[in-house]
Amino acid sequence: QVQLVESGGGSVQAGGSLRLSCAASASTYNIYCMGWFRQAPGKEREGVATVDKAGYARYGDSVAGRFTISRDNAGNRLYLQMNSLKPEDTGMYYCAADRSFGYCGTSKGGFDYWGQGTQVTVSS
Q: pLDDT tens-digit profile of 87-121?
């Protein structure tokens, strides 16, 4: 069992930046796919970015070019650097991890582990 704990959320004005962090309770060397997802009130959960064990990253269309996902397997952490934030980026951001080898993209389902989320609020 792997526990994931997100941090780094907060309130920021449009155009600002935030860096989210996700700490895993166990080694991420055995976790193939990790990702960030978000959910705004009244909307479905959306894949933001994913990264596989080799470091290959994929991004949702709405964040490509503004967000950067990275993972630190030595430190058992996942990060999301968010720049040029927009009000539509507001939502609860969740970290997810999956041990299974295979597709690791923002439309992937069936993640094994999820964090409790960290709130991001972007004001105009």
A: 999 999 999 999 998 899 999 888 999 999 999 99
Q: Tokens in use for 73?
A: 């397997």
Task: Give me the DSSP letters along 52-113.
Answer: ETT--EEE-TTTTTTEEEEEETTTTEEEEEE-S--GGG-EEEEEEEE---S--STT----SE
**Terminus-to-terminus CA distance in the chain, angstroms?**
40
Dihedral sign computed on CA atoms, order 1, 76, 48, 121: positive
* Residue with the two structure tokens 């041990």: 99
- How far are the Cα atoms of 15, 29, 101, 111, 116 from residue 6, in angstroms, in the given order? 22, 19, 24, 16, 7
Rounded Cα–Cα distance for residues 121 and 124 (Å): 10
Which amino acid is it at 73? N
The CA distance from 60 to 25, in Å, is 27
* Contact in structure between 76 and 28 (CB atoms under 8 Å): yes
